[in-house]
Amino acid sequence: MSVRLKQALVIVTTDMNTRLLELELVETCDIPAFMAAAEPTFSAELRAKVGGGLYDGDPMATYEEWLDDVKRTLRVIEYGESPGLS
User: Fold this and answer.
1) Which of 11, 33, 61, 70 could form a disulfide bond with 65, CB atoms 3.0-4.6 angstroms apart?
2) Residue 72: φ, ψ to 5°
3) What is the pTM assigned to this prediction?
């Protein structure tokens, strides 16, 4: 499951980056503001279960660890970096 979860995140990030480039908005994209708007819409079920998918449940990750991974991946949009780099 963690591979699929990561693949989905990378695909969405790539598509989002492509769309921002098309709209010429990539320079003004503010990931912290985006996350501040998006995170309140995450369901209680997502918050409770998504950590299990980060490392296939071994170890079981917390929602906060998953969210940190999402933010690292989204850096590709804000900074043009590879998601694997810190």
Assistant:
1) 61
2) -65, -40
3) 0.69
